[in-house]
Amino acid sequence: MKKIVFASALALTLAGAVLTNDVFANDRLVATQSADGRNENVLSSEVLNPASGNVLVGLKGEFLTPDQQAILDAINAIRKEAADEGLVDKYVPIKWSTDLEKAAFARAAEASVTMDHTRLSGKEIWSAFPSGNSVLGENLGWNHDGFLKALEQWRAEKADYVKKKSGGSTNGGSGHYQTLISPKFTHMGIAAFKNPNNPYNAVTIAQAFGDAATSEELVGSYGPAIQYVEVTSSNLSTVKNKAVVVEKALKEFRTSSSDQSGWVKTDGKWYFYESGDLKTGWVKTGGKWYYLDDLGVMQTGFVKVDGSWYYLSSSGAMFTGWGTDGNRWFYFDGSGAMKTGWLKENGVWYYLDESGIMKTGWFKVGQYWYYAYGSGALAVSTTTPDGYKVNGNGEWVN
Question: I need a labelling partner for 368 at 20 to 30 A (CA). Which of 94, 295, 316, 325 fits?
Answer without folding.
Answer: 325
